[in-house]
Specification:
With 815 residues, the chain is of the alpha/beta class. The protein contains 26 helices and 30 strands.
């Protein structure tokens, strides 16, 4: 099939299918000797052949709803700008790269001109080299400076694994430059005895936004010589900085720029992303400075075969008698087993930590029946592991000791996984950006690779596997972040004042909302104004006021009750649903039951067990309108956006059979309610419109509820979020509107920008919602269209046909 309009992240240079473990990879080996990609001397199975093996048999073949073939592409070479040092160019050539691709040379030229630039080209297109060439050249120049330490550079990665992997690559690449380049990782895992060396001697510091926020900026006097010489700031995988996390990082970068200015430097920002829509605007919003974009990918790409896979319906019946599909978790475990047996090196991405553990366990059990040596070559990789566990898994994957890995997005942006042949994506990852990022992890050498998206029993997944154009004919989503969110901005103003007294002139740097917040921070006695500046006067650290990952609160420690051993942690915001009393918790392939969640001590006590079920929390939600900021008439209906207060309480949990997902029972919980002030989009309809649509009072609640569920499921098509970032409430007669109302809100204090994006794209969003419900083959509603795994009311009431009629009537008068 012709493929004329690729999203940015689809331009992948992917590697050969290989049964032989890859034990060495050239650092940044993202370019090749001149000429088009050629087949390896020892031919490997083509990705189409591997897919044919997976789909043998009529039942398997019927599960593939679409196969997309992305054709290979030849690369276009250029020459390095003459201002790149000759010894740096020689070091790059020693790494096997004779000439840069055109986009690498263009990005380096902008960097040398002192212009901030974002490289938004495909996975494996050589973005690392695009920013490393000017960075290494500047560091080598600085090493020859007669006085001082010379130029420095700061590298920011969203994960520790990516920073550690980049250090390895930089050390190898810069080895011929001797002591001119001194890279060092500075994060929470860096031993205390090494930190002083990093501050004094490293000229290329690799860290993450968390450490910059809590460790480097508050201690800036000890980093003064580094900041004074700071020439470049590299922001890798910048598309991950979205929502609340992205908004926090935007303010952290403004604090960094402020301190640099005080020390006399003005660093150039070099950003990289394999997947971004309107990358210049997104990068400028993140950094606060003008950014030039490079989007024309000149690297070669091998053939990519991308299959959409829908698990079959089972004989089981779920809530309200709805048909149940086989779970994506069980389906992926089967596919991973088959691929490992074939010797095809594979990563299976899954959205949840528990899902990663389940896929690993199921695959290991099935592999044991085939060959006793194979289970040890499959593992899980996820956040929450202890640092030494993560490093061991990274080494095993890098060496080829592991053939299969079930991983969360902790690996999506993690270590160099050169040599992988296939990627399984367990459920749509929430955005097209993440989809292409995950698919691009397979292969790195310009040859073929296989990617398979395994659909969950979910409205969005079902819509996508039957509407492939929504994946393959549309660009990736716009990166949504809101640095002016007062819940984000306020603690960073306090942190900035603690770093250096905050002046009137500084406020413009932090955005238009900063001035309005200062009187509130004074009234709360967080800041005190003296003469011309605001000061932080409290004893505690101002940087501790906020968790930039957006979770907030103290992480809950997961402790084995019998031994006191720390197994891992979970965010406080997720603790009520993840580690409530009676919850099943998985860690390193072992299953634990939560005996008690201690909210005061932020600890969950667990004991090892082997229950034949998983658990899913249930909650109830109410909502009130605080302020309507914008209102648009859709005929007699109204589309609104504004501030709301949401009250949520986890009230029970379901026990479900493993693999099938069948509900075994429900148990009550006694947890306190939580209140959230956030942003929402909502729409109302009138009684006349309901009469015209044939919506009677008996079905009104079910129609609204079904429309709410489906619209939450489809919003990720239009904003960089997934359904777990957002929530919803539907009410036949809401006390604030006095009309039937459906709300969709951001699940973060102050909002994350997702609801606003829904408001801006409401017509297209709600049209896709209606079409998804109408196209589902079920009779009365199922998890593929209107049932939600998050529903606090047990998916009751729901009315599928009523939702279609309601949305059709609403959209008929949309402007």
């Amino acid at each position: 099939m012709a493929f004329n309009h690729l999203p940015a992240g689809a331009h992948d240079a992917l590697g050969p299918l290989s049964r032989t473990p890859v034990t060495h990879s050239v650092p940044m080996a993202n370019t090749h000797r001149p000429g088009p990609p050629t087949a390896p001397a020892d031919p490997r199975p083509a990705p189409g052949t591997v897919l044919d093996r997976l789909s043998r048999g009529p039942s398997r073949a019927a599960r593939i709803t679409h196969t997309e073939h992305l054709p290979p592409r030849e690369g276009r070479h250029a020459v390095w700008p003459h201002r790149i040092r000759t010894d740096v160019v020689a070091a790059i050539r020693d790494a096997g790269i004779d000439h840069p691709w055109e986009h690498q040379a263009a990005a380096a030229e902008h960097a040398l001109d002192g212009e901030s630039v974002v490289v938004a080209t495909g996975t494996a297109s050589g973005k690392s080299l695009a920013y490393l060439a000017p960075v290494l050249s500047a560091l080598a120049d600085g090493a020859e400076a007669p006085n001082g330490r010379g130029a420095t550079a700061l590298y920011l990665a969203p994960t520790k694994a990516l920073a550690a992997d980049q250090r390895r690559a930089v050390r190898e690449l810069a080895a011929p430059l001797g002591n001119a380049v001194r890279p060092a990782v500075y994060d929470g895992d860096t031993p205390v005895e090494e930190r002083e060396w990093v501050r004094q001697y490293a000229n290329y510091v690799l860290t993450n936004p968390d450490m910059l926020h809590r460790g480097i900026l508050p201690s800036h006097p000890r980093w003064s010589s580094f900041l004074k010489a700071l020439r470049y700031v590299v922001v890798d995988e910048c598309h991950t900085y979205r929502g609340v996390f992205g908004s926090h990082v935007a303010q952290v970068l403004r604090r960094l720029r402020r301190l640099c200015a005080r020390y006399g430097s003005e660093p150039v920002f070099l950003l990289a992303s394999a997947t971004a829509s309107d990358p210049a605007a997104a990068a400028s919003r993140l950094t606060g400075v003008p950014v030039t974009e490079i989007t024309d990918d000149a690297s070669p790409r091998g053939e990519v075969v991308f299959a959409l896979w829908e698990p079959p319906l089972t004989d089981l019946r779920g809530e309200k008698g709805a048909p149940v599909r086989r779970t994506a978790t069980a389906e992926t475990a089967d596919l991973l087993t088959d691929l490992v047996v074939q010797g095809v090196r594979t990563v299976a991405f899954v959205r949840s930590r528990r899902g990663a553990e389940l896929i690993s366990v199921i695959a290991q059990e099935r592999l044991a029946a085939v060959d006793r040596s194979l289970p040890g070559r499959v593992a899980a990789y996820r956040g929450g592991y202890l640092p030494e566990e993560r490093r061991a898994l990274e080494r095993a994957l890098h060496s080829g000791e592991l053939l299969g890995l079930a991983a969360t997005t902790a690996l999506e942006l993690g270590v160099d996984v050169s040599g992988l042949d296939a990627v399984l994506i367990t459920g749509y990852p929430g955005t097209r950006a993440s989809l292409w990022q995950q698919a691009g992890r397979a292969g790195r050498s310009g040859q073929g690779a296989l990617a398979v998206l395994v659909a969950r029993d979910d409205p969005l997944d079902t819509y996508l596997v039957h509407h492939p154009e929504a994946l393959f004919r549309r660009p990736v989503e716009a990166t949504v972040l809101d640095p002016d969110n007062p819940y984000v901005l306020a603690p960073h103003l306090c942190a900035a004042a603690a770093e250096l007294p905050l002046t009137e002139a500084d406020l413009d740097l932090f955005g238009p909302a900063a001035r309005g917040l200062m009187p509130q921070l004074e009234a709360a006695k967080l800041l005190r104004r003296r003469a011309t500046a605001w000061h932080w006067t409290r004893r505690e650290r101002a940087s501790d006021l906020t968790d930039i990952r957006g979770g907030g609160g103290r992480p809950v420690q997961i402790v084995e009750a019998s031994t006191g051993r720390l197994l891992g942690t979970v965010d406080e915001s997720a603790s009520h649903t993840a580690v409530h009393d009676g919850a099943v918790h998985l860690h390193q392939g072992r299953t634990y039951l939560v005996k008690h969640l201690d909210l005061e001590d932020s600890a969950a006590l667990v004991e090892e067990a082997n229950p034949p079920f998983s658990t899913t929390a249930r909650d109830t939600t109410s909502i009130s309108i605080l302020e309507t900021e914008t209102e648009i008439p859709w005929g007699a209906a109204r589309l609104c956006f504004g501030s709301v207060e949401v009250t949520n309480q986890v009230v029970s949990y379901l026990r479900r059979k493993l693999v099938t997902g069948e509900v075994l029972g429900e148990a009550k919980l006694d947890l306190p309610p939580r209140t959230l002030r956030t942003r929402a989009v909502w729409w109302t309809v009138t009684e006349d419109q309901l009469d015209e649509a044939g919506i009677t009072p008996e079905i009104l609640g079910g129609a609204l509820h079904a429309a709410e569920h489906a619209s939450i499921g489809l919003l990720p098509l239009f904003a960089t979020c997934d359904r777990w970032d957002i929530g919803g409430v539907s009410v036949p007669l809401h006390p604030d509107t006095l009309l039937p109302t459906v709300f969709v809100y951001d699940g973060h204090p102050g909002g994350a920008g997702f609801a606003e994006r829904g408001f801006r794209t409401a017509r297209a969003w709600l049209t896709a919602t209606r079409d998804a419900i109408a196209a589902c083959e079920c009779e009365a509603g199922c998890p593929s269209c209107i049932q939600s795994p998050k529903c606090g009311n047990g998916n009751d009431p729901l009315h599928k046909r009523g939702a279609v009629r309601l949305l059709t009537r609403l959209l008929s008068t949309a402007p």
